[in-house]
């Protein structure tokens, strides 16, 4: 469904993403891991269109994404969340979803909105304002809900679990698992927690200094000594 | 004395309706495009001169100028949009220079076509006094306050209930997130300029029908609209409506209690005071989490 071919993103002299080739099949859950600054979020930004790749190709359902304007990508089925939640502040939770659905799918379906609200545990907060009246867990849930409302084929989740306490994390993870089945989406997820990734993902891709250093099942990847070295930040010593 | 003050309050509110219309246009465009359109007051003035033309050349009521003003002003607003959208670098700052320049060109175009004379309506129907309870006003003042109220209610409905209105708010509050939801920001930008043009058209005809106009007046209107937007707090639409009324009242009270020479000054004083005491404006956004 999503295919990156030799994708590179350079900022001046810095190569944030270096000739990465990666694919995500429909209904597949792929984890993207790597130390801070490895280029994970930059890769997300390239796929969703917030940064322009320096070279390489991004194909989604065989369509060249680099020729597709940002706002069309949602319509094609790419949904994403941000590490720092990005609600549309002045809108209520429900309005956030309505706008996402109306412009992300071209149609309005109040039942689907209720379903998404219910699924993300936001029904009670539907008429609240996103900016000032939600707790962090709820803001993260809203991120997921907003992406779901656009009816995505691929959901890109950027550290949705970071900053949540253990209970919240467990609940959220249960939700992600259920979401994968219920809404029949492929998922590309950035996450630091190895347990979460092993639990959730069919495949794991590891980035280090912008390069893809491993791509395989969680078992294979987390047994790779080179991966573990980059991951735990161990030096050459 | 207290009657005098109450009467000033009443006149101020009526005047404030038009101020709010003008400021709402400025605020909408700033919301979607983060551009302060310094030519906005000149657009209002164009509508006012359309009203003058229709009355003086065709001998019709200035009300008939509204369709003409809508076409001309909205066209100009869209033109301003396209010129601004050509700016690639530092648009927020460079657009100030561009729109200020457009304002100067428009002012001088008005000067060239209609000369520097002060114009006002000669319609007796407009200028007749109407009495509401203990208060007096010109008929046109009351009429256009009603028009402004209807327009503001319509705008409120549009922003809070319609798809496009919600998209405009979505782009204003988080541009990137809105794009990722599938909203084309360029369309909402054009729409906000057109809506600003519609509000400016009515405000312009209103200003001619109860006041005096002259070519330099456009710039003063931009300043008033800017003051109101800052008073309200950037991004607060209801705040802008209240801010418009506040400026109207402050000006009317100054004229009544002090002197009409100080009318323009009071807005500035209010502006400084609010900036010092409440930098986020009276209705500005609170600090945001997340």
Descriptive key words:
heterodimer, A: 237 residues, alpha/beta, six-stranded mixed β-sheet, four-stranded antiparallel β-sheet, 9 helices, 10 strands, 38% helix, B: 290 residues, mainly alpha, ABC transporter involved in vitamin B12 uptake, BtuC, two-stranded antiparallel ribbon, two-stranded antiparallel sheet, 12 helices, 75% helix, globular, Branched-chain amino acid ABC transporter permease (chain B), BCAA_transport_permease (chain B), membrane (chain B)
Descriptive overview:
The complex is a heterodimer of chains A (237) and B (290). With 237 residues, chain A is α/β, with parallel strands linked by helices. Helix content of chain A is 38%, strand content 25%. In chain A, the strands form 2 sheets. A 6-stranded mixed sheet of chain A has the order 6-7-8-3-9-10, sandwiched between helices. In chain A, a hairpin with a 2-residue loop joins β4 and β5 (63-64). In chain A, α3 packs parallel to α5. The termini of chain A are far apart. The model of chain A has no long low-confidence stretch (mean pLDDT 88). Chain B is mainly alpha-helical. Chain B has one domain (2-289): ABC transporter involved in vitamin B12 uptake, BtuC. In chain B, 75% of the residues lie in helices and 4% in strands. Chain B has helices at 2-33, 40-58, 65-85, 91-114, 124-127, 139-161, 163-173, 175-180, 185-210, 217-232, 237-257, 263-277, and strands spanning 119-120, 129-132, 135-138, 212-213. Chain B has a two-stranded antiparallel ribbon with strand order 1-4. Chain B has a two-stranded antiparallel sheet with strand order 2-3. In chain B, α1 (2-33) crosses α7 (163-173) and α6 (139-161) packs across α7 (163-173). The longest helix of chain B has 32 residues, at 2-33. Chain B starts with a helix and ends in a 13-residue tail after the last helix. The relative contact order of chain B is 0.20. Classes of the chains: A alpha/beta (237), B mainly alpha (290). At the A-B interface, α2, α3 and α5 of A face α7 and α8 of B.
């Amino acid at each position: 469904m999503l295919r990156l071919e030799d994708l590179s993103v350079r900022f001046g002299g810095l190569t944030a993403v270096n000739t990465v080739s990666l694919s995500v099949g429909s209904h597949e859950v792929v984890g993207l891991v790597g130390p801070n600054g490895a280029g994970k979020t930059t890769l997300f930004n390239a796929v969703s269109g917030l940064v322009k790749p320096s070279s390489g190709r991004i194909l989604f359902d065989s369509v060249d994404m680099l020729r597709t304007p940002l706002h069309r990508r949602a319509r094609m089925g790419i949904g994403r969340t941000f590490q720092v939640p990005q609600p549309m502040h002045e809108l209520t939770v429900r309005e956030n979803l309505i706008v996402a659905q109306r412009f992300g799918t071209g149609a309005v379906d109040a039942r689907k909105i209720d379903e998404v609200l219910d699924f993300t545990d936001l029904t009670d907060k539907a008429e609240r304002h996103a900016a000032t009246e939600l707790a962090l867990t709820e803001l993260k849930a809203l991120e997921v809900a907003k992406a779901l409302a656009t009816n995505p084929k691929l959901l890109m989740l950027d550290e949705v679990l970071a900053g949540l306490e253990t209970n919240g994390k467990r609940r959220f993870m249960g939700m992600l698992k259920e979401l994968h089945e219920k809404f029949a989406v492929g998922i590309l997820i950035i996450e630091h927690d190895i347990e979460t990734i092993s639990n959730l993902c069919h495949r794991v891709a590891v980035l280090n200094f912008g390069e893809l250093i491993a791509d395989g099942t969680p078992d294979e990847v987390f047994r790779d000594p080179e991966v573990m070295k980059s991951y735990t930040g161990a030096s050459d010593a | 004395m207290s009657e005098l003050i109450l009467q000033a309050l009443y006149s101020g509110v009526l005047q404030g309706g038009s101020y709010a219309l003008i400021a709402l246009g400025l605020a909408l465009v700033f919301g979607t495009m983060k551009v302060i359109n310094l030519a906005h007051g000149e657009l209002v003035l164009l509508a006012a001169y359309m009203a003058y033309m229709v009355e003086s050349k065709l001998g019709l009521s200035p009300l008939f100028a509204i369709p003409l003003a809508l076409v001309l002003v909205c066209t100009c607003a869209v033109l301003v949009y396209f010129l601004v959208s050509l700016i690639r670098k530092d648009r927020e700052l460079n657009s100030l220079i561009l729109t200020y320049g457009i304002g100067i060109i428009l002012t001088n175009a008005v000067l060239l076509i209609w000369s520097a004379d002060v114009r006002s309506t000669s319609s007796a129907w407009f200028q007749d006094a109407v009495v509401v309870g203990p208060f007096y006003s010109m008929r046109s003042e009351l009429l256009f306050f009603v028009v402004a109220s209807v327009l503001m209610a319509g705008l409120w409905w549009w922003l809070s209930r319609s798809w496009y209105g919600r998209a405009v708010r979505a782009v204003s509050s988080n541009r990137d997130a809105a794009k990722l939801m599938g909203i084309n920001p360029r369309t909402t930008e054009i729409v906000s300029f057109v809506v600003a043009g519609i509000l400016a058209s009515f405000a312009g005809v209103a200003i001619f029908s109860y006041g005096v106009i002259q070519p330099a007046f456009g710039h003063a209107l931009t300043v008033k609209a800017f003051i109101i937007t800052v008073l309200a707090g950037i991004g607060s639409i209801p705040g802008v409506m209240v801010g418009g009324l506040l400026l109207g009242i402050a000006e009317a009270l100054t004229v009544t209690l002090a002197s009409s020479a100080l009318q323009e000054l009071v807005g500035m004083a209010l502006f400084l005071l609010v900036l010092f005491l409440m930098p986020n404006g009276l209705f500005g956004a609170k600090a945001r989490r997340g």
